[in-house]
Amino acid sequence: MTVATTVAKVLAPKPPRTAAGGVVAPVRTASVCTPEPEVVLTAVAEQEVPVVIEKPEPKFQLLDSETFALTCEKALEAAREHLALPQSPTERMLDRRRTKELVARIKGGTWLPCNWATVLYEGVKYRMNGQHSSRAMLEAADYLPEVVGIHLDHYSVPDRESMALLFRQFDMRQSGRSTADVSGAYQGLVRELEGLSRSKCQKAIEGIAWFQRVVAKEYTPPNDGIYEMFFHPVYYPFLRWFDKFINSKTVELVFDGVVGAMRSTFIVSESGAQEFWPHVAKQDLHDDGDPRMALGKELLAILDSKKTDHPMKVTPSEYYCKCIKAWNAFRFGERVSNLKVVPKKGWPEVAD
């Protein structure tokens, strides 16, 4: 790959240098009310003691590390060359769904530089990773950007134990992007939501997305795409309100169906929702027939049952219908004796 431009080099660490001499104590003057002369404390030098750090024996050796900025044509050559290498015994099995997802990234214009690795083991150069990304590049060749970045590391290992250990360093589970990470990233880009709890806002967005997709039948981005909803100001009043009264003692209110019901009631009457839901959360009313008390007790009973050997199985749709049944009774000034629902009969109308 002659057009490749190497932009990264492996540099050998330089030995640390320490300052010569010691630490000089400050000069202090002590005065006493006696005929004795003034006493001056002189500087005292302390010699530095060098700290010896024992470096661990490397389990594998990095032989070369390069980053290339390639034209499409050269990038495809590199992909073919990488894919043609012998597969490492540690490499994951080919997953067509993974390849399809990477192809979608290329066609969607969100392709990032590849990070590939090879290893020299028993005299043979193996491919450690990159079979999915190289295949995706070849399958979506016409959609690749004009400049394709590829970073390539080449290692050597003395034995199979070291090869297995090297494999474990790639894409470690602890380093994976969780949904909380993705949600927090989107929320962090919105100044209007500064100071709001990221965990609460994630629950709120997920509940809103469920409501829009399942109940309202509105288009909702799939998977992590729902967190793009953080960029829509229409949700900000709800998120700020949700952040105020939800806490560690109101876990029963963060299920998708419940949050979805909160959103639907907030839409029809913001003031009504503010009067209804905080009492459901606090359970601070003295009338058990009040719909807010009835719903609060029902949700707590479901939550408590999950800690037993016979948990109550409640779907998001059932949560939603129970909440709306209680809301409608509250808006009509009615009492409730039970919150049994049958979601299959259709979604209940939300009283305004």
Report on this structure.
This protein is an alpha+beta fold and 352 residues long. It has 2 domains: 61-171, Conserved hypothetical protein from pyrococcus furiosus pfu- 392566-001, ParB domain, CATH 3.90.1530; 180-345, no CATH class. The protein has 11 helices and 8 strands. The chain has a 4-stranded mixed sheet, with helices on one face. The chain has a two-stranded antiparallel ribbon with strand order 1-4. Helix 1 (72-84) crosses helix 3, helix 2 (96-107) crosses helix 3 and helix 5 packs across helix 6 (198-215). The protein is elongated, with a radius of gyration of 32 Å. The model is unreliable at 1-35 (pLDDT under 50).
Task: Provide the gyration radius in Å.
Answer: 32 Å
Unreliable spans: 1-35
DSSP, total strands: 8
What series of H and E elements makes up the topology?
EEEEEHHEEHEHHHHHHHH
